[in-house]
Design goal:
mainly alpha, Cytochrome p450, 3-stranded antiparallel beta sheet, binds protoporphyrin IX containing FE
């Protein structure tokens, strides 16, 4: 299933970029789960898959090199901006195809009340007026919602899973406990919801890995009124960058903040992370992550299945850094060798 399809075909000790593998996996998962669309990124990367990579890469380039350039200048006068637009156009067309295909199916059914609805059906329902006339749907609104979902729903989870692999390689004692838990819980080819609920130590390690390496390191907000912060009035319309990573490695809360300590998430321990502000990897407030539960389930499923069969070794253990960009990914990906468990 998914990543395993790819790993199973590789000889022992092969070097892979696990970030790339997971990113393709999660794109396939979100496409199928939410929109019943198979990107087939893992097995047969196509223009759309490359366009996703291109958009994310250029967005990071913009943050690094062109952050102070006005949007129109960036988009029209830089090669990065033109590349960004070209890739966005490919994705807009692909998304419109997904929508049109579904709208045609719905028109043929003469009703949106089909039995099992996926995310796309719900999004279409939400865009319908009272008269339920499909032809009046705003294609742009629907397309943009879907693209937000596709972007927000795959790169985040794959980055979190990649940091989990790095954390396991760097903390063999914790990995051993995770492997024991996975072996005792997952007995079938596809884990059940019940199984996933029993992966408590694995989940603690996953969250601890996200505390030290939050996939989204920085979020932005704009003040809608003048606000006073510590005696300074910040005018309406000011853009704020909120550093999630800094709040999660606050030494006042975590005395040894860079130490990988899963007990930070042990609900039976007095020192467990209790305040939402201590762990904000899924953000806070009304615009926080709506895919949190999905992401956690997906990660536990994929990691459970992968670690049931394989362990990994970092190819360059001394060279694991966080790259600056939209997502806090390992710089240059994460190169590991794969090892079949006996
Ligand atoms: C480990 C996995 C994930 C992490 C760490 C994560 C993190 C985040 C963060 C930090 C935000 C808030 C951005 C902000 O406050 O400005 C966000 C928003 C969002 N996430 Fe996630 N996410 C994950 C998985 C997912 C998945 C699997 C989906 C979809 C199934 C998803 C869908 C969304 C959407 C649609 C938003 C935008 C919500 C809005 O603007 O109202 N995320 N995510």
């Amino acid at each position: 299933m998914f990543s395993l399809k790819k790993l199973d075909g590789l000889p022992e000790g092969t070097e892979v970029d696990i970030l790339e593998l997971f990113t393709k996996t999660t794109l396939d998962v979100i496409g199928l789960a939410a929109f019943n669309f198979n990107f087939d990124a893992l097995i047969q990367p196509n223009d759309e898959t490359r366009a996703f990579e291109g958009v994310l890469e250029e967005f990071s380039n913009r943050m690094k090199k062109y952050i102070f350039l006005p949007r129109w200048m960036y988009l029209n006068l830089t090669s990065s901006g033109r590349n960004f637009r070209r890739n966005i156009d490919i994705l807009r067309k692909a998304t419109e195809n997904i929508i049109n295909k579904r709208l045609t199916q719905l028109k043929d059914q003469k009703s949106t009340e089909n039995t099992s609805k996926d995310m796309l059906d719900h999004m279409i329902d939400a865009c319908l007026d009272n008269d339920k006339d499909i032809s009046k749907i705003s294609m742009t609104a629907l397309r943009d919602e879907i693209m937000t979902f596709l972007f927000a729903g795959h790169d985040t989870t794959s980055t979190a899973m990649t940091w989990f692999v790095a954390s396991m390689c760097q903390n063999p004692t914790e990995q051993e406990k995770v492997l024991q838990e996975i072996d005792s819980v997952i007995k079938t080819e596809v884990p059940t919801m019940h199984d996933l609920g029993l992966l408590t130590y694995t989940t603690m390690c996953f969250k601890e890995s996200m505390r030290i390496h939050p996939p989204v390191g920085l979020i932005g907000r704009e003040s809608i009124t003048d606000v006073e912060i510590n005696g300074t009035v910040v005018p309406k319309g000011t853009f704020f960058g909120l550093d999630i990573k800094a709040s999660q490695i606050n030494p006042n809360v975590f005395p040894d903040p860079e130490k990988f300590d899963p007990s930070n998430f042990d609900q039976n321990s007095p020192k467990a992370t209790t305040s939402a502000h201590q762990f904000a990897a899924f953000s806070l407030g009304p615009r926080n992550c709506i895919g949190q539960q999905f992401g956690l389930l997906e990660a536990r499923t994929i990691l459970g299945l992968v670690f049931k069969k394989y362990t990994f070794k970092l190819t360059h253990p001394e060279d694991v850094w966080t790259a600056f960009g939209l997502m806090s990914k390992p710089k240059g990906g994460l190169k590991v060798t794969i090892h079949k468990r006996s």
